Amino acid sequence: MAEIKVEHVAKTFGSFAAVKGANFTVDHGSFFVILGPSGCGKTTTLRMMAGLELPTSGRILLDGEDVTALPASARDIAFVFQLFALYPHMNVRQNIAFPLRCQNYPRAEIRRSVEETARLLRIDHLLDRRVGGLSGGDRQRVALGRAIVRRPKAFLMDEPLGALDSEFRRLMCGELRELHDRIDATTVYITHDQLEAMAMADRIAIMNQGRVEQIGTPQEIYDRPNTMFAADFIGAPPMSFLGVEGSLRRGDRSIRIDGVPVEMPEVFEDRAEGKFALGVRPENVSFADSSQLRGRVIGAEYLGTTQIVTVTTANGQVKARLPSANAVRVGEQVGLALRPDRLSLFDANSGQALPSALSARGRHG
Amino acid sequence: MAEVALVEVSKSFGAVEAVRDLSLSIANGEFVVLLGPTGAGKTTILRLIAGLERPDRGNVVIQGRDVTSEVPAERDVAFVFQQYSLYPHLTVYDNLAFPLRSPARRMDEKTIRRRVQQVSELLHIEHKLANRATALSGGEMQRVAIGRALVREPAVYLMDEPLSSLDAKLRAELRLELKRIQRELGTTVLYVTHDQIEAMTMADRIGVMGEGVLIQLGTPREIYERPNSAYVASRLGTPAINLIPAELLRSDRMPREARTAGLRTEHIKISSADRPGPLAQVHWVEHLGDQNHVHLKLATHSLVTLADPVQELKAGDQVSLEFTEPLYFDQAGNRVGTDGAGRRA
User: Fold this and answer.
1) What is the CATH number of domain B237-336?
2) N or C: which end of chain B has fewer CB within 10 A?
3) Do A303 and B289 touch (CB under 8 A)?
4) Closest Cα to residue A225, out of A285, A280, A282, A286?
5) Domains of chain A (ranges plus CATH)?
6) CA A340 → CA A281, A323, B43, B66, distances in Å?
7) Which DSSP state fits B72?
């Protein structure tokens, strides 16, 4: 177990700023996910935590000790790449033992550690099998075993499940998280897959263009996104945005969309005339004949229990998650009702959420 | 008219029967999705239609013509694979133009230019035409790979999990795109996946496969609401259908031969413990953002259902359950009785 502090870390490659002042703490024993699209700087951040890259500025602390300049080998950290490379000519025991043999551990200790690791992963009955004949799941477990057998202070994982098909990926997500809990590890995990992040993380850091946009629990980021980017990156389908023009006064509890007042959480700031975006999640949209906020249905995606209905309005597209039992016709005009206490309001130019009763709810519990 | 038909086709590899006595007919302009786990025989079917495999028995018919003994090049099909295979030394434009420049087609460069332009606009990669194929993101590469199939106008497109290597967000976008393009062009598609969301959102009809057999074929709604077996019922729905011993329901409307009850979220109503009905305990509530799953303990059985966003439940709560119109399955797993709309299994 370890606590990892990343303090104002930046990294530039030539004129390209890959990471711009990342600042966060990974708590003891937590499962921390860095989430973002390709090129957002997440892998560079992880490589600096591992000691594979030197930051241009800033510090990295491992359990309070400044390790910024230490090479990877001097940090007690395991770096896990995609989880499939096993040595095919070795059996399971030899594969798991490999990292310890490389460091010349005594035989008895290797034996004990390997067996303990295999028990944790529930593959102790396979120790003397060749890896060639194993199922996909068991191969992944062996690869995991090789990563955890050294019992480092922390695991840094770079899209370890990226090469797997989606069904298997979901299964391994559950296993990884369970393993993390069982061995009390500190894990930093990188992915571009929001479902992996939502399913596993204690906390998520969302990165975009070298910047950390938001850090929080999956539910916090989902319910109270700081930026339009975070709102859009999390959620399937993502948050819908309605474009609004106007000005705001501190204490306002509604905003006019094309003259129609729409209730929303109380705004805590005055804002001059400008462009805003009202963000709404699909499950907080319903159809109401009486609503003056009108739109036309342009598509419905059937999902079994629910359906995702896409409605175009004069101010943008809105997606609604509705029970499949509701009959919806493509082309029909509908009135939209938005759940007032769950709406986010963003500055459309900066993409930042405005301080409101919604964002305050997070801060005060 | 059937664009593609398989007639009683079987194919074995050594002792493994990959496809067993399978018949399937795809109409012109139809989008059919084969859904099933790894090893169900989905990809073998695509390869049989493409001519990459020869059936042991049965026939493959494309546009009314028996092509069973024809080589792939003679069949009018285009194949999109799971892993994009682009020519790395060529630009996006040349990658897209490649299938049209085949000497057999004798297409002039002007026509080629028009086709490539059209397809690149459909796929939103028109601004990348001059880029080298290797200078693209994963999503763009896969779009080029799909585009390379689209520039041709074959009788049928065969797609083998074309979106599975992409991240969730891109997958969702391309899913809609692909469906839109298919509808606009009126193309015939046979699409293979193990992703139920892809199947439900894109398919006109879904074919559920297991162990080389086509178990049920129908519209997404038919498959979801009226599955013919517990196996089919388990393939669709998030959270997955709960299968529990039928006697736990203590319902007098249950068919006599029912052994297992299948409960989806919409079959389970949760109310406070003082209401009549079997008692259950909330084990935990799993927050997945938009979908919060409630895990319930009913006697020794676990049930997972979607949480109602306005109903506040927490671990340890006692609740009363009401089951409306569940699905019933017999000893062999076949569905018995009627569904919610009163239709027979």
Assistant:
1) 2.40.50.140
2) N
3) no
4) A280
5) 4-223 (3.40.50.300), 238-363 (2.40.50.140)
6) 11, 20, 48, 61
7) G
CA distance B266 to chain A (A): 7
Residues 6+ apart with CB under 8 A from B334: B228, B229, B345
Provide the pLDDT for residue A365. 43
Q: Which two tokens stand for residue B43?
A: 């990809």
Instruction: Tell me the pLDDT of chain B averaged across its residues.
Output: 88
- Is the link from the previous residue into A152 a cis peptide, with omega within 30 of 0? no
Q: Do B289 and A167 touch (CB under 8 A)?
A: no
Distances (CA, A) of B111 to A247, B97, B108, B116, B186: 53, 10, 6, 9, 21
Return the closest-CA partner of residue B141 out of B119, B123, B118, B154.
B123
Residue A315 in this model has a pLDDT that exceeds 80: yes
Length reported for chain A:
365
pLDDT in tens, A130-179: 888 787 778 878 888 888 888 888 999 988 887 666 667 777 888 888 88
pLDDT of A363 above 70:
no
Query: Mind telling me how many Å the CA of B166 is from chain A's nearest CA?
Result: 9
Instruction: Determine whether the interchain pair A193/B168 forms a contact, defined as Cβ–Cβ distance below 8 Å.
Output: yes
Give B130's Cβ-side CA count (13 Å radius).
1
The chain A residue lying nearest B168, using CA atoms, is A193
CB B77 within 8 A of CB B154: yes
* Res. A1 pLDDT band, cuts 50 70 90: low
| Contact between B223 and B236 (Cβ < 8 Å) | yes
CATH code of the domain occupying B2-234:
3.40.50.300
A47 inside 8 A of chain B by CB: no
CA-to-CA distance for B84 and B106, rounded, in angstroms? 26
Residues in chain A closer than 8 A to B218 (CB atoms) = none
Contacts of A328 (CB under 8 A, 6+ apart): A297, A300, A307, A309, A322
Minimum distance, in Å, between the CA of residue B72 and any CA atom of chain A:
28
pLDDT tens digits, A47-87: 999 999 999 999 999 999 999 999 988 888 888 776 557 88
List pLDDT tens digits, range A220-261: 999 999 999 999 999 888 999 999 999 999 999 999 998 899
Residue of A nearest to B267 (CA): A305
Q: Where are the domains of chain B?
A: 2-234, 237-336
User: ipTM of the assembly?
Assistant: 0.71
